[in-house]
Structure formats: structure tokens, C-alpha cells
Amino acid sequence: VNVGCVPKKVMWNTAVHAEFIHDHADYGFETPGVKFSWRTIKEKRDAYVRRLNDIYESNVKKAQIDIIRGYGKFTAGPEPTIEVDGKKYTAPHILIATGGRPAVPSDSEIPGASLGMTSDGFFDLEELPRRSVIVGAGYIAVEMAGILSTLGSKSSLLIRQDKVM
To answer: Where is the FAD/NAD(P)-binding domain (predicted)?
Structure first.
């Protein structure tokens, strides 16, 4: 939600607005001089995500749910128990939020890999890149390529192909 779904939807909606502006003349609207500011949408998007995080945390506290941060593992025993950083916690309900991260290959595995970024890095961009190459053909890659292209980045989508069609 924090580094994917919500900020990606903000960027998708930004691209939708860009498409609408592109088509305004066909519907009789004159929109000369319309400019897009990556910095503005980044600041507003990031503030929106921070606001949502505060709301989520407040709701968790109101529900009297304890948040325990650290590396945990379930232990053997009759009751649901988890051990986090050497301390054991028992509760009727335990939720593990994994906080997954993408795997990034090393330069020895894929030459030049360190020059790229994951989809998380997209949200850290301080300005719209003039050119972008998105590797992959999953829905996130296709959405990122569409967003970047619509907002003005000359974008290419690289797709692995195992056989000639």
C-alpha cells in the first residue's frame, strides 16, 4: 500500500489527466501552455501516503493492537507464539506483515544491473526521466511504462521472448 498500490494509483490518475488534457482540443477546449510538474505530484503523492500511514497507525492503536517491529519466527508450542528478536509473544491472533522487498541481481549476474532501479525506486525519482527502459512484461511494468510515457518520458518496454513467433 505504501510503496506500491496507493502511490502507483496516484501516478496512474496523473497520467489519465494528462491524456484528458491531450484530448481537450477534440472536445472544443483550448488548453495552451499546460505544464506538468513532476515535483508537485511527487510532493502531493508522498504527503498523501504519509497521511494514510498516520491514519492506519491511529486506527491500529484505537483497536488496541500492538505493533512489534523486528525479525520474527513462529515457535513450536500449543499456543500461537512468535519470537521477535529473542522475545516471545503469545496471542490468539498473530499477523505477520513481511515487508517484502524485490530481489536485485548483482552486476556479475547481469552486467549493468546496478544502473537500474526497482519499482520502489520509481517513487523516489525527483524528476521525470527524459528516457526510461522498463524490463519485464508484468502488469506493474506495463503500468509504469504507460505512466512514464504518458507524462513525457520516451519509454521502452523490454520483454523476454523464449521463442520466435
So the answer is: 1-165
